[in-house]
Every structure is written in C-alpha cells, then in structure tokens.
Amino acid sequence: MRLTYVPLLNLQRDLYRLPPGPDRFQTYLRTLVDASRGDITLPLMAMNPMAKAHVPAFLDELIEMDGDAIAATATAAAAAQLTDDPGDYQVTLVVCDDLQGGWTNRYTTDFDYRFRQRPYYQRGWLATILWVSEMYDPDQIQAEVLCCIYRAIYIQRHGYAQTLRDCIAQETYAMGQAMTTTTTLAVDDLHYTRQVLADLWDRTDTATLLAALYGDEAAHELGHPPLGLSAHAGLALAQAR
Questions:
Q1: Are 113 and 46 spatial neighbours (Cβ–Cβ below 8 Å)?
Q2: Which tens digits make up the pLDDT trace of 159-205?
C-alpha cells in the first residue's frame, strides 16, 4: 500500500486567522470543494469553520508539538509494514470541535469516523480526527494515525462493518495494531459488558450499535434505548479483546 502524508494543520490554523463570518465560511468552502468538479478536494468536513478561540489555540499546541511531523513518521512506519496491501491513500490530521461545535455530536461523529468513511476512502483519503476536548502527546497522535490507517486496512480486507460483531472486530484489529490504550474498563465491567452484548452481536440498527459502543450516556443523549452500559463500553471491550 502506498501511503502519503499531507500536512494540513497550518492550513486549518490559517482559516481561523480570518474574522468569524461569511468570508471565513466561504474560504472554508473554497478550500473544501473544487468548484470546477463539484467534489471534495480536502477531507475537512469534520472541522468547524466558525469555531471560537479554543480551536485555534488547540491547533497552535499541535503545531508547536510538530504534529504533522509526528503523523508523517507514523504514516511512513505503517507504509513499511503494509507493502503487500493494495491501495494509494493520502493521510492527514483534521481537528474536530466537539466542545462548542454546534453541528458536531461526539458520538455520531465518532461513529461515522470509525464506520462510515466510504466517501473519503473512495477519494483516497485517510483523515485522522483529533478531538478538541482531548489532550494529545506525540505517542497519542501516532496511535490515532495508526488506528486510522489500520482501520482502513481491515475494511479493505473484510468489508464495511454491518453488525455489532463486525464493529467490535474492526476496532479490535485497528486499536490492537495501533496499541492504543485510550478506552479502558475495570475487569468486572468488561465481563458485564460481554454479557449484555452476547445477544446483540448480529444487530445492525444504528440505535443499538451506538448504545452498545458508546454506552448509556450516548443512548440517552441521542434518544435511543439504553442497554445498562458504561461510557464507551463496547469500544473498551474491543480494545481489551
């Protein structure tokens, strides 16, 4: 597989140098979409073009950390391990405002990021989301990039997840390859989660998938029936398998 890293952190930061308003939004649209083709040019749908000061401050921290260089190194390392897999993708980092982004729900956006990336994949993009509500160090940035890459590898090999079983299997592989440790539960809570999900493995409805993967907090927020699960229970189970 050919993987090329495209640095976009400075481009995102420059957008916020414009005063919030119509000019900034139109600049964002021109950056996002190629008007001549009417198609996406850069994978920036997850960013909030009208974000307040907390997002450029977050970008400043990533740039000072040289986040693009960290992500480029992770991309090169993955490419060296995936020479037998077909495909040609561009990898990048995209900041998502899950704090004050009015059109961003963390749970549904994260679900789409993990399981509904077909439009980006078809355009040859692997866009790694970094959440404004989180704090990242170089190891965490590397893990997020690798998780994004290996998630695409799994989908290329096995197809897009349909059932809860598929979702858990995909994330088990991606997080295992990236060695991420961001989502954890106590041993007894993991055992309980396995019991709750035992009869749900073949479910495909979005309400069940969201409740199973993200827990009761997400279910209540989105108006779905809760399952009696802790926050991010299903994803924690995937990481622990």
A1: yes
A2: 999 999 999 999 999 999 998 877 789 999 999 999 999 999 999 99
List residues bridging with 92 in a β-sheet: 127
**Contact, 128 vs 144, CB < 8 A?**
yes
DSSP 21-62: THHHHHHHHHHHEETTTTEESS--TTS-TT--THHHHHHHHH
DSSP per position, 139-157: HHHHHHHHHHHHHHHHHHH
State the Cα–Cα distance between residues 185 and 233, nearest whole angstrom: 7
**Angstrom distance (rounded) from CA 44 to CA 128:** 10
> Does the model's pTM come out above 0.85?
yes
Q: How many CB atoms lie within 10 A of CB 131?
A: 20
Characterize 6-29 residue by residue with b for buried, 16 or more Cβ atoms within 10 angstroms of its Cβ, and e for exposed.
Answer: bebbeebbebbeeeeeeebeeebe
Kindly report, residue by residue over 80-136, the tens digit of the pLDDT. 999 999 999 999 999 999 998 767 799 999 999 999 999 999 999 999 999 999 999
Give me the percent of the chain exceeding a pLDDT of 90: 92
**Which whole-number Å values give the CA distances from 141 to 29, 44, 72, 74, 92, in the listed order?**
27, 18, 10, 9, 11
Average pLDDT, the chain: 95
